[in-house]
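Appendix B.2, paired examples.
Example (i):
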Amino acid sequence: MTSAAPLKVLSVASEAFPLVKTGGLADVVGALPGALSPHGVATTTLIPGYPLVGRAVKGARVVHRWTDLMGVEARLLSARLGTHPLLVLDAPALFARAGGLYGADDDWHRFAALSRAAADVADAMRFDLLHAHDWQAAMAPAYLRYRAAGSRPIPSVMTVHNIAFQGQFDAEVFAELDLPDAAYGIDGVEYYGGVGFLKAGLQSADAITTVSPTYAAEIREGRFGMGLEGLIETRRDHVQGIVNGIDPAVWNPDSDPALPTRYTARALGRRKLNKRGVEAMFGLDRGDGPIFTVISRLTWQKGMDVLVRCLDELVMLGGRLALLGSGDAHLEAAFLAAAARHPGRIGVTIGYDEPLSHLLQGGADAILIPSRFEPCGLTQLYGLAYGCVPIVARTGGLADTVIDANEAALAAGVATGFQHGETDYHTLAHAIRRAIAAYARPDLWCTIQRNGMRADFSWAQSGRRYADLYKSLTGTA
């Protein structure tokens, strides 16, 4: 910790682990305060007051009230996210409702209010910098940018966790956003004749980060930029990729309470008891052959349509599959049909279960991640930490974090998994065959497992890079 007063950063997001989570965004937002603290950064996290969050912070102190926050009453509650400060936007008209976090007709209103509140809080509570995550918080840098002339300058960082999700809305909502008319333009919030929340954040922020270096380069191309590649290209000098980390306090096979048997890289034999647990939970035949796992949204982006086509071959080669996930109805049905076609060889659980995901990482032999694009990915990092060997597409953060078991990497003793090229049947099936061949050589397989487990994917290095960025923007470097 530096001797100077810590830099005060407001981190704004739509979810944060362990309070509320739909995906990796929550893990990152929840881990950042701890990652930044050793580098002289004091992070306060601001999230919406969903019912689950409200119950967790019941009795929290009210530190501010809005009588008219974009047309609704709201309170700001002060609580804790682990050992770090947490602010909760308690706006019942917007967030106190059943169902999923996203997909409501008034999402523009809900998350514009979150962003507007963030800008108000950053100013009133004298934060040094605002860090916005994904489209749900992306209007915050825009609200800072279009404040009244003479306002205290507050720099902002916009992090893109997945550029495919952009928060695009009809032009009619602009009149309700409490922004000056000048903000509706190509260099403001206007996007293809409507309002683009992520576009506004990318245009307005002082710096843009993505969650891996490769993804930062990829989104400058049409195939990955999802219509925003031109903007990213014009702001390329403000863009950098900082790979996500994982929290070893949560993801550690030597201390994980979700595992029947804990283990280390030096005691990999203990994993077999966890493998028996996976077999029991997913109705798989007991055996010594490899168990592949999938822990994923079942979507086109994740390459799940291609994986379905490879399952018959995977089983024919002696593999088994344990899948945990949900998503597109036709893909859920296809995996369930494969399980019915191969009883005892394929087990499928539709939904998400955090402890079960830990068991799969600690008991399955390999994890399949054939994504067509993947900004960073966390499941491959969990797999590396747990000796669950990743089989991944060569894209985004997957390419940055997994070292392919090619001849050169094997000879050098550095391989940590298997990569394949563009996601299609032939490349994925070939990667599965390579993995099964390596699994048949126990000493080689253990070496690959241990290499991954010894790699450092904690937040230490990434936390320092974020802190350095913050300090450069605030002139405190």
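Example (ii):
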Amino acid sequence: MDELDGIAETIRRFMEQIDGARDTAYRGSRSLIALCARTIRAIHREEWAAAEALLAEARAATDDLIGGVRPHAELYFAGYTQDAVKEFVEANLVYALVRNRPLPTPEALGAEPNTWLNGLAEAASELRRRILDLLRHGQSDEAERLLDAMDLIYSTLVTFDFADQITGGLRRRTDALRAVFERTNGDVANSYRSTQLEAALKSLEERLKFQDQDDLGA
């Protein structure tokens, strides 16, 4: 048993290393999530230069986070790590969708495939806010483009019919996206009908005005 102290000390040093990496990753994940939230806010405000700068900052933070936990599978696949990477994916995909740019791949973002899919689901849900802003400003064509993107994303995600252990809970996020899409689709339809009604009333008003002018002239 003389060797027990040496073995235990070796294991202790190994676990202390993991514990230190865990603390660093936990702080890094919280910081990354906050950074991604700021990025999405800048996107909705159409502050494109700020959004791009924040995305670059988030890229560096993601690389640091992943680099610190990659040697330790239990930390790399931990919920807080993958949740933070998912937020990074979401911010990048929201930017791409809103600016009508190609979607960055999982490899380009350094994300696991299931994490990327979950980020895509949340990015599509985030489009609702953008669509409502566009409708308020009368930009119906752009609103319909993003609504079509939401529909296509949902139609794609629903085909990933695998266990949650494989998809990382994708089914729940896909169901949530469906509800968001249906509400948004209804809002777009109502806005379209309201615009049509407003145009019809304006046309009628113009015809009545001309008719009154003709009657007065007669």
